[in-house]
C-alpha cells in the first residue's frame, strides 16, 4: 500500500536526528506559501491565571523588503521564528469556521475575524469559543471555563485591534499564551536552543520570555491529527493494520487531513460498513499514524512538478513530425513527481532517513557530488546521497507521479514505480549523463548539428517519450528502472514514418534531427543492455560502421559481404542514390528521388527504392548521357547483388523500417570526397 | 496435514490497493485474501472465513499497465460518468498453495472434478480465471524451528518470516507491502502482511525467523520452502 510506504518514510523521520523545531515545521504549514501573509499580524495574548489579566501584543514575524528600487515592499517571513506559531491551513471547507482539531491555542485569523473584533462578544462566540472547544489542550476544561476564558481574551484582543489602523484583507494569527498549559513555559532569557521555541517577551512579567516547548507541541500536533482521523471510525483495544499488534485505540486511515485518502471521491468502502465503521478496513494506531503524518508531509516537501520542457517531450505525438513541432505548450496537464525511500526489510530507518534528508540538501551544503540524480532518471529535480556505512541496495526507491489538485483530493496517479534498486538507478543515471556528455555531441556533429540544444536527451522520460510515444512513457520507465528488456521497434517505425513525411517537404534539417535522435537512442539501448542487463550489444558503433562503409564506398573496396544486414544495405543504397542524384541534378536540375521515386501521394518503400531508384540508374544515365561519378559502377554492382540477397531473405518487407532509416542516413551523409577535400584545402589556406 | 497446489492465470488482473481513492492502483500480485476468496468461490461459500493458510508463487514476472476507464456512478444518476485511471496486471500467473484442516480435502475434491460453484476471477469480475489443479501433497513436512542453513523458496516470503535475506548478486528483490491479511467475515479485515519476492520469479534464499506468535509457517515441498500465511 502507498500508506505503508509513507509509514516507512515517517518511521525514518522519527528515527532520524531532526529537532522538534524541524519536525514541527514539517507537520504544520508554517513554511507554506498560503500562510505567509498571516505572519504579518501575530497576536500574542498572554494570560495571567493569578489575576485573570490578559495582555495582548501584535508583531509581524518577518520583515518587509523591496526586491528592487521602486518596487512595492513585500513581506518575507522569518523562517526560523515562525515555527513557534505552528498553524495548519484548512484544506477545504469554510476557513472562517473552526475546522478540525487544534493542538493548542494558536489560530489563523481571516479578515472577517478582525471585523468581529468590533464586538468582543461576537468574536468570543463566533471565533474563539468554537476553537477552544476543538483544542486538545482545553479538552479537559469545562464549558463554563471556556466561555469565561473566551470572553476575557476577546475583550483584550478587541482593545488591541481597536488601537491599530484598519486595512483591507487583514490576515493574522492569534496565539494565546496560557501558562497553565504544559506546552508553554516562561524563561529568564530568550532560549532558542534545545527544545524551546521563542514566542516573544512577556508583557505581564517584564524581563521574562515566552516559549513553546517543542517536544510537547509535537505530541499535541500528533494528538490533534489523530483525533481528526477518528471522524470515520475509531475502536478501542483493536489490532492495528500496520503493526499487527493490539493498540489502546485505532482510527480509520481514511480522512480528510491526508487528501490522498480523502473519502470525498470514489472509495473502497464496503456497502456493509456504516459511515463511521471504516475501521473494518484499514485501521491505524497512534504511533503509526504519527509516522504516516510525518511521511506524508515529507513527501509533500519532496514533491516537484515536472518541467514544461519535459512534459512537451513526453506528450508530443511521435509519429507525426508536423504535430510534434507545434505542440500546444499550455495544453499539458501539470504532473508532479515524488520520491520515497523504503527499507527492503523492516530495519535501517536511520540510514533511509539520511538518504531522504540528503534530497532536501543543496549541492553546496552537501559538499560532494550526489550519487543519484533523480532529474536524470525521472525528471524530479532532487539528488540523493548514498550512505557510506551501508549498502544502498538494502533500500528501495519508489517514484510516484500524479496529476490533479491535491488540495481538493482530486489526485490521479500516473505511475507508481516501486522496488527500484538504487544501484540500478545510479547506473541509469550514469548512462544518461554519458549519453548527454559524449554521445549526443558526437552524433550531432556527424549530422552537422553541433551545439543544438534539445530536451530530448534530458532524462529517461524525455528519451522514452520521443522514442516510444506518450502512451508508453511510464511503462518504459518502469521497465528500465526494473532492468527489463527495452525494445527499439517502436522508435524505428516512428522514425521511418517521420523521415518519409519530412522528405516530402524537403526538410533536410528535420530529417537530420530525427536520425540524430534515432542513433542516440540506439546507443542508449546498447549502453543499457551492457550495463544493466549484462548483455553485450551488437558490438558495433553505428557511426564507426558508417565511416567504414563510406570509406570503402569511396575507395572502391566495397564487397557484397560488407552488406550483410538490411541496415548496411540501406545505408549504402542511400549513398548510391545520393551520388546518382548529384549527377542527375547537374544534368537535369531535377531532384532524382522526388521526380522519379517519391511520387506524390506515395510513401517511400524499400521496394520503390529498388525498382524505381536503383534499377533505373543505368537507363537514365544513358538516356541523359552523364557519368554518375567515380566508383559509382563498382558500388552499383555490389548493391545490385546485395539486393538479390535482400529479396531472398525478405529484408525489403520484414526489415522495412530499418532499411528506410539507414537509407536516409546514407542519403543525407553522402559527401563527394573531391569537394570535401577542396573545401578542407580552402579552409586551411 | 495435506496441501494442494493449483494454478490460476489470466490476461489481466486487478487487486485494488485499498488506500488509493481516485486512482485505482493494484497490488503487484494476488493478495492472500483474494487467493482465499477464490477457494471460497470454488467451494461455494459466500463469506469465506477460514484459519487455513495459503502460499503464493509467481509463475510470471509482474507486469502492469495503466488504462483510463469510464466509470459510471451509482449515486449521481445514470448519466454520471468519470474517467478513472486503473492499473492492471498483465498476464498474471500464480500457483496457489492451500493447506489446513478445514477445507483442504473439499477443495482437492472440487479441483479434481474440475468444478467451481461460483465464477472465479482475479480481483475484478472482468478478469475471469479457471483454477487448474497442479498437485496434491500428502503428509507435508513442516519446518518447526529456525535453521542454520538458508532455505530456498520460489514462493513469496513474508518479511516477518525472514531473519536474514541472502543477497545473491543475480537476484532482484522486490518488496510488496501492506496486504490485508486476515478476513474476519462481513467485509472486516485485520492485520497486514508484507512480502519479499524475486522480480524474475527465481528462487530466494533466506534464513527463517519465528513469527510474532513464535511459530514458523513454512512447508517443505520437493526440497523447497513454501511460506504459508
From TrEMBL, chain A:
Pfam families in UniProt: Cas_TM1802
Entries under InterPro entries matching the protein: CRISPR-assoc_prot_Cas8b
Organism superkingdom: Bacteria
Protein name from the UniProt record: Type I-B CRISPR-associated protein Cas8b/Csh1
Lineage of source species: Bacteria, Bacillati, Bacillota, Bacilli, Bacillales
Automatic annotation (TrEMBL), chain B:
Residues passing through the membrane, by range: none
Keywords for this protein: Antiviral defense
Gene3D superfamilies documented for this protein: 3.30.70.2660
Pfam families: Cas_Cas5d (PF09704)
A single GO BP: maintenance of CRISPR repeat elements
Membrane recorded as keyword: no
Protein name: CRISPR-associated protein Cas5
Source organism of the structure: Candidatus Reconcilbacillus cellulovorans
Amino acid at each position: 500500500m502507498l500508506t505503508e510506504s509513507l509509514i516507512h518514510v515517517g518511521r525514518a523521520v522519527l528515527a532520524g536526528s531532526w529537532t522538534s523545531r524541524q519536525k514541527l515545521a514539517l507537520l504544520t504549514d508554517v513554511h507554506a506559501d498560503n500562510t505567509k501573509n498571516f505572519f504579518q499580524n501575530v497576536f500574542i495574548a498572554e494570560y495571567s491565571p493569578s489575576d485573570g489579566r490578559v495582555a495582548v501584543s501584535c508583531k509581524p514575524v518577518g520583515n518587509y523588503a523591496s526586491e528592487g528600487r521602486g518596487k512595492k515592499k513585500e513581506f518575507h517571513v522569518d523562517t526560523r521564528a515562525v515555527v513557534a506559531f505552528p498553524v495548519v491551513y484548512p484544506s477545504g471547507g469554510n476557513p472562517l469556521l473552526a475546522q478540525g482539531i487544534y493542538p493548542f491555542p494558536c489560530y489563523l485569523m481571516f479578515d472577517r475575524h478582525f471585523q468581529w473584533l468590533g464586538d468582543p462578544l461576537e468574536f468570543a462566540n463566533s471565533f474563539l469559543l468554537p476553537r477552544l472547544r476543538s483544542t486538545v489542550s482545553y479538552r479537559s476544561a469545562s464549558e463554563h471555563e471556556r466561555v469565561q476564558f473566551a470572553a476575557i481574551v476577546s475583550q483584550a484582543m478587541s482593545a488591541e485591534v481597536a488601537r491599530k489602523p484598519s486595512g483591507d484583507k487583514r490576515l493574522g494569527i492569534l496565539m494565546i499564551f496560557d501558562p497553565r498549559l504544559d506546552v508553554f513555559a516562561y524563561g529568564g532569557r530568550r532560549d532558542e536552543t534545545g527544545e524551546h521555541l521563542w514566542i516573544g517577551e512577556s508583557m505581564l512579567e517584564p524581563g521574562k520570555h515566552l516559549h513553546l516547548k517543542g517536544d510537547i507541541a509535537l505530541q499535541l500536533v500528533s494528538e490533534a491529527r489523530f483525533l481528526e482521523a477518528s471522524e470515520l471510525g475509531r475502536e478501542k483495544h483493536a489490532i492495528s493494520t500496520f503493526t499487527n499488534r493490539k493498540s489502546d485505540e485505532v482510527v480509520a486511515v481514511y480522512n480528510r487531513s491526508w487528501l490522498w485518502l480523502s473519502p470525498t471521491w470514489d472509495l473502497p468502502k464496503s456497502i456493509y460498513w456504516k459511515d463511521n465503521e471504516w475501521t473494518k478496513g484499514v485501521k491505524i494506531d497512534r504511533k503509526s499514524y504519527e509516522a504516516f503524518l510525518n511521511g506524508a508531509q515529507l513527501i509533500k516537501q519532496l514533491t516537484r512538478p515536472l518541467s514544461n520542457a519535459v512534459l512537451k517531450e513526453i506528450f508530443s505525438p511521435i509519429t507525426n513530425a508536423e504535430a510534434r513541432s507545434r505542440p500546444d505548450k499550455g495544453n499539458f496537464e501539470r504532473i508532479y513527481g515524488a520520491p520515497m525511500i523504503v527499507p527492503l526489510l523492516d530495519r535501517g530507518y536511520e540510514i533511509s532517513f539520511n538518504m531522504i534528508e540528503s534530497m532536501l540538501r543543496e549541492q553546496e551544503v552537501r559538499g560532494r557530488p550526489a550519487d543519484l540524480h533523480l532529474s536524470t532518471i525521472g525528471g524530479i529535480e532532487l539528488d540523493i546521497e548514498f550512505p557510506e556505512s551501508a549498502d544502498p541496495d538494502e533500500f528501495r526507491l519508489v517514484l510516484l507521479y500524479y496529476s490533479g489538485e491535491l488540495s481538493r483530493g482530486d489526485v490521479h496517479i500516473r505511475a507508481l514505480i516501486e522496488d527500484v534498486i538504487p544501484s540500478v538507478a545510479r547506473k541509469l543515471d550514469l548512462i544518461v549523463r554519458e549519453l548527454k556528455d559524449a554521445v549526443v555531441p558526437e552524433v550531432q556533429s556527424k549530422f552537422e548539428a553541433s551545439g543544438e540544444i534539445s530536451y530530448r536527451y534530458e532524462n529517461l522520460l524525455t528519451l522514452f517519450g520521443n522514442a516510444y510515444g506518450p502512451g508508453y512513457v511510464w511503462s518504459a520507465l518502469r521497465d528500465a528502472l526494473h532492468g527489463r528488456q527495452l525494445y527499439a521497434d517502436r522508435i524505428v517505425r516512428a522514425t521511418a514514418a517521420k523521415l518519409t513525411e519530412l522528405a516530402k517537404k524537403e526538410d533536410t534539417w528535420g530529417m537530420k534531427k530525427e536520425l540524430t535522435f534515432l542513433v542516440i537512442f540506439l546507443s542508449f539501448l546498447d549502453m543499457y543492455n551492457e550495463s544493466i542487463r549484462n548483455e553485450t550489444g551488437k558490438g558495433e558503433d553505428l557511426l564507426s560502421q558508417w565511416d567504414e562503409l563510406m570509406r570503402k564506398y569511396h575507395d572502391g573496396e566495397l564487397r557484397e559481404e560488407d552488406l550483410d544486414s538490411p541496415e548496411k544495405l540501406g545505408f549504402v543504397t542511400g549513398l548510391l542514390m545520393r551520388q546518382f542524384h548529384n549527377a542527375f541534378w547537374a544534368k537535369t536540375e531535377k531532384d532524382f528521388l522526388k521526380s522519379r521515386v517519391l511520387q506524390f501521394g506515395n510513401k517511400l518503400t524499400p521496394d520503390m527504392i529498388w525498382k524505381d531508384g536503383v534499377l533505373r540508374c543505368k537507363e537514365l544515365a544513358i538516356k541523359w548521357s552523364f557519368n554518375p561519378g567515380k566508383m559509382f559502377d563498382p558500388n552499383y554492382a555490389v548493391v545490385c547483388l546485395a539486393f538479390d540477397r535482400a529479396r531472398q531473405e525478405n529484408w525489403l518487407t520484414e526489415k522495412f523500417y530499418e532499411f528506410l532509416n539507414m537509407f536516409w542516413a546514407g542519403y543525407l551523409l553522402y559527401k563527394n570526397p573531391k569537394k570535401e577535400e577542396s573545401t578542407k584545402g580552402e579552409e586551411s589556406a | 496435514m495435506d496441501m494442494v497446489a493449483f494454478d490460476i492465470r489470466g490476461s489481466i488482473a486487478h487487486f485494488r490497493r485499498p488506500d488509493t481513492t481516485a486512482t485505482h492502483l493494484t497490488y503487484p500480485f494476488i493478495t492472500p485474501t483474494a487467493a482465499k476468496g477464490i477457494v471460497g468461490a470454488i467451494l461455494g461459500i459466500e463469506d469465506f472465513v477460514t484459519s487455513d493458510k495459503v502460499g503464493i508463487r509467481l509463475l510470471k514476472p509482474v507486469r502492469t499497465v495503466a488504462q483510463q476507464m469510464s466509470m459510471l456512478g451509482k449515486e449521481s444518476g445514470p448519466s454520471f460518468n468519470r474517467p478513472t485511471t486503473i492499473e492492471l496486471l498483465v498476464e498474471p500467473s500464480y500457483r496457489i498453495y492451500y493447506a489446513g484442516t478445514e477445507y483442504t480435502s473439499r477443495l482437492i475434491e472440487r479441483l479434481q472434478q474440475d468444478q467451481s460453484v461460483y465464477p472465479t476471477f482475479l480481483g475484478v469480475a472482468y478478469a475471469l480465471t479457471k483454477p487448474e489443479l497442479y498437485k496434491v501433497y500428502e503428509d507435508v513436512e513442516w519446518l518447526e524451528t529456525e535453521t542454520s542453513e538458508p532455505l530456498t523458496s520460489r514462493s513469496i516470503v513474508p518479511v516477518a518470516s525472514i531473519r536474514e535475506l541472502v543477497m545473491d548478486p543475480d537476484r532482484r528483490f522486490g518488496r510488496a507491502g501492506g496486504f490485508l491479511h486476515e478476513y474476519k467475515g462481513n467485509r472486516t479485515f485485520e492485520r497486514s502482511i508484507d512480502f519479499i519476492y524475486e522480480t524474475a520469479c527465481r528462487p530466494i534464499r533466506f534464513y527463517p525467523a519465528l513469527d510474532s506468535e513464535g511459530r514458523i509457517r513454512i512447508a517443505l515441498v520437493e526440497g523447497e520452502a513454501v511460506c504459508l500465511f
